[in-house]
Structures are given as structure tokens and as C-alpha cells.
Amino acid sequence: MKKIFGFATTVLLTFALAACGTGSNNSADSTSASGENTKLVVGASVTPHAEILEQAKPLLEKEGIDLEIKTFDDYILPNKALENGDIDANYFQHIPYLNKQIADNGYDFVNAGAVHIEPMGLYSKRISDISELAEGATVITSNSESDWGRILTILQDAGVIKLKDGVDAETATFDDISENPKKLEFKHDIDPSLLATAYQNDEADLVAINANFAFGIDLNPADDSVLLEADNSPYVNVIAVRSGDENSDKIKKLVEVLHSDEIKDFVEKQWQGSVKIVDADAK
């Protein structure tokens, strides 16, 4: 009887300990009872986003957060991964693109905080100054409609084209061009990730390349572009999360760390003005 009673006591004690262990970590936003850090998975473009996040890792670790970075080479999969719950947040897109993705796909996403801006540049292997642009020249842009108004604004600011009066430059399309004195030919049917290749292959007189892809082929927007976007651009890169998660402690800490002096100093040293940290509440 003593052996049976002892066995039963052991079973009950084991069950009780297991039950306690199951309920020990009921919050995704706090350090577990065992002292383990909270995990945060963020999807990002390889450069500069993932590089910036790598610098944020040790800072977040001090805050009790283990950051895992998943890199993406395109602009479609990071939002799909966020919708599917494969990642907690993504960091690759600017505000107009996020807004369009939400409108087109019904994503229940929100902007959890602005981080940085990357000025868009137009590059050329054929000319070094916009005054050299010939009549009938070709301009290659991506098929990302959220960037069209951005590129057209750069060209308008340079006096190359003019948009129709009253058109919202942020949502302008090529049909909104009212004056095109050089009779430029626009090609806007390729994926953003292929723009750098189009430039390297000298496929046009001007190629508009998103900064992250320009960095990938060692182009510095501030130094190497023929035309560069103005500093007052609304195309700020943000942390995107599923609606409601913007109030999560780990997301708030992520945004806070990305605006720390350590990150600002790294970004300035690494990109020398081609990437600029902005205020977290920038819109």
C-alpha cells in the first residue's frame, strides 16, 4: 500500500507542476517567468532595413526582447507574411505604398511608427546632368503605382515635365502629365527589384531606382543620382503591424529603439545622408 500511495502522490505532484508550467507565460509582451526574453519577428528588406534592425538587436535585448529578422527581396511577400501571422511586424514600405496595399488587399494593418526616409533617385549611364537629356529619351520606372507620383514630382521639380493643374502629386499617374516638351518615353512595367539590373544593362536614359535596391549595387543616391528626391518627401518608411498590435509593448520598444541616438549615429555614418531617421510620428 505504501508503494501504491507513493506512486499516486508522485503522479499528482508531476501533474500539478506541469499545470503550473503551462500557465507561466500568458503574456506575449512580457518577459517570461523563467526569465526568457520576449521574441519579436520582423520582416524587412535586406538594405537598409535589415541592416538597421541588426544594430537594434543588442539594444532591444537590453529591453528583454529577442529580435529575429526575416529578410525579403520583394515588396509583396512581407505584407502577406504579416497577414498570415508569420511575422509580428514588417519594415520595408513607405506610407503611400502601405495605404495602397491596405486599399487593394483589405489588409487590417496600421502604421506603428515612421522610421526613416530614403530619397528616390533617377540614375543614368548616359548622362551626368539633366540638361543633357535628349528629346525622345526613355525613362524606366517600376510597376509600383504608389511610386509613380513620387517620380513624376522629381521630374516636375527638375523642370522636365509638368503635371495637370489640381492633380495630387502623391497619387499622380503618367496620364496626368500635361507637358512633356522633350517627348520622353516612359516604361513602367517592371518589378522594383529589377530596376538596378535595368540600370546596369543601360536599358534607358534614366532609371528610377528605390534606394534599397540602389544600395544593393553600391549606388549612393546623394552622390550618384542625376536627380534626387527633395527632403520634404512624404515617402517615409514605417513599421507596419496588424491592427491593435501597435499598442504592444514590444512594438513600442522597437519603434523607440529605432529612434535612439545609437541608431541615428549608425545610419548617418553608414549612409551619409542617403538614409535619414525621422520623427516617429511623421506622417
Automatic annotation (TrEMBL):
<keyword id="KW-0449">Lipoprotein</keyword>
<feature type="lipid moiety-binding region" description="S-diacylglycerol cysteine">
    <location>
        <position position="20"/>
    </location>
</feature>
<keyword id="KW-0472">Membrane</keyword>
<dbReference type="InterPro" id="IPR004872">
    <property type="entry name" value="Lipoprotein_NlpA"/>
</dbReference>
<keyword id="KW-0732">Signal</keyword>
<keyword id="KW-0564">Palmitate</keyword>
<dbReference type="Pfam" id="PF03180">
    <property type="entry name" value="Lipoprotein_9"/>
</dbReference>
<comment type="similarity">
    <text>Belongs to the nlpA lipoprotein family.</text>
</comment>
<protein>
    <recommendedName>
        <fullName>Lipoprotein</fullName>
    </recommendedName>
</protein>
<dbReference type="GO" id="GO:0016020">
    <property type="term" value="C:membrane"/>
</dbReference>
<feature type="signal peptide">
    <location>
        <begin position="1"/>
        <end position="18"/>
    </location>
</feature>
